[in-house]
Amino acid sequence: MVKAELIGHVIRWYRKEQHMSQEVLSGLAGLDRTHYSKIERGLRSPTIETLFRIAGALDVPPHMIIETIEKEVEKSTI
Amino acid sequence: MVKAELIGHVIRWYRKEQHMSQEVLSGLAGLDRTHYSKIERGLRSPTIETLFRIAGALDVPPHMIIETIEKEVEKSTI
Question: Closest Cα to residue B51, out of B41, B61, B38?
Answer without folding.
Answer: B61
